[in-house]
Amino acid sequence: MSYYYRGNLAVELEQQPRSVTKTTKRTIRIKPTIPTGEKLLYLLFISLTVIGLGLVGVRYSQISQYNYDIQSTKKENRIITEKTTSLQLQIEQLSNGNRILQEAERQGMTYNANAVHTIGQAKVQASSNPQTQQNQTTKR
């Protein structure tokens, strides 16, 4: 019937302490943190690593741009070389002696052997008038 009297405040029961609390001393070890100097050293190392990687990335992009410029320049050079070759062939075709004679005759010009000038011979002079050429040779 002990539970019956517990609710009654007029009756005081002698209660035995139910729980025994033991007081024990514990030693808590607090782990020391990383010293400030070492933290700064780590921060410096990480910063240098990030900056180094950034510089490598920038240089890589510059090298890629240079390679693109080189490839486009080579392509332009090849196209210009093809055009130059084509123009050289066209020059050879247009400077053919027979073609020049045919074109001159088609335009109504006549062939004058005295007015022909050959490149490489120093004493021969070209003149459109054969009489002028004879006068120049007699004056020398």
Plain-language structure description:
This protein has 140 residues and is mostly helical. Helices cover 60% and strands 0% of the residues. The chain contains four helices and no strands. It has helices at residues 2-6, 36-94, 97-106, 130-139. The chain is rod-shaped and about 140 Å long. 0% of the residues are buried. The model has no long low-confidence stretch (mean pLDDT 80).
The end-to-end span amounts to: 163 Å
**What's the helix-strand series?**
HHHH
Outline the low-pLDDT stretches. Answer: none
Average predicted confidence as pLDDT: 80
Radius of gyration: 55 Å
- Oligomeric grouping of the chains: single chain
Structural class: mainly alpha
Q: Hey, roughly how much beta strand do the residues contain?
A: under 5%
Query: Helix fraction?
Result: 55-70%
Number of helices: 4
Which key terms come to mind for this protein?
mainly alpha, 140 residues, 60% helix, rod-shaped
Topology at a glance:
Blueprint: H1 2-6, H2 36-94, H3 97-106, H4 130-139
In short:
This protein has 140 residues and is mostly helical. The chain contains four helices and no strands.
